[in-house]
Amino acid sequence: MKTPCLVLVYFFLVILFPLVCNSQQVTISGVVLDANTKRPVSGVSVIVAVQNISYMADGQGRFSLSCNKNDTMFLFFPGYRTVRFSVSDSTYKSNYFLTLFFSPLTATTSQAVIVRPKKNLEQLEKERKELGSLPRELQQPQVSLMSPISALYELVSERAKERAKLRKQYLDDERRRVYKELFIYFNEKQMIDLPEEYFEQFIDYMGLPIDFLQESSDYEITKTILDNYKRFGLDRGFIK
Question: Whole-prediction pTM value?
């Protein structure tokens, strides 16, 4: 028969051991490189979203931070696609060094050609309807559960502003990704002949918000893209 002390020790081991494992403190260092040039990108914000903490990469693209092993981090810098990363699936160690590649939003003609899997309209519609959903780490905290002072801090602090900027960038990245998938589909169906180096410019030219992709029908989206494509092509000179 177990003594009360042994039972108590056993209880604490069963309850606390998973909590200790899930809150392992680690140091993550790394370097951020441009995916095309392989050169360091300086001034990148490295954000630990759950903790609302932001770090800045130095002039050589290097950074170092402390966090929980299971935390999710984001790289943010205007003109680049937001990168989400974590070491939660890695074997535990106290220090990690990562090389992270940052892809510019604007494609260049010198980039290698990437063969993408083809998507049909049903898959593209599913992706359109899912636009606007944020990863858990970027969702707004529940203000109702905060004290008034904490809620105010969440709204006006620099960390909150950085987090809001990251949310905006993440959603814009997703909006652009879905538009590009649509352009690829329309090019393959020979409905348009839009050179890939013009994809980003065409998205900016149309200026359509994420709501348009979420709420419009396939017909409305197709007609809007085709109408804008004709004007854009004439302006840029690849339609005569």
Answer: 0.53
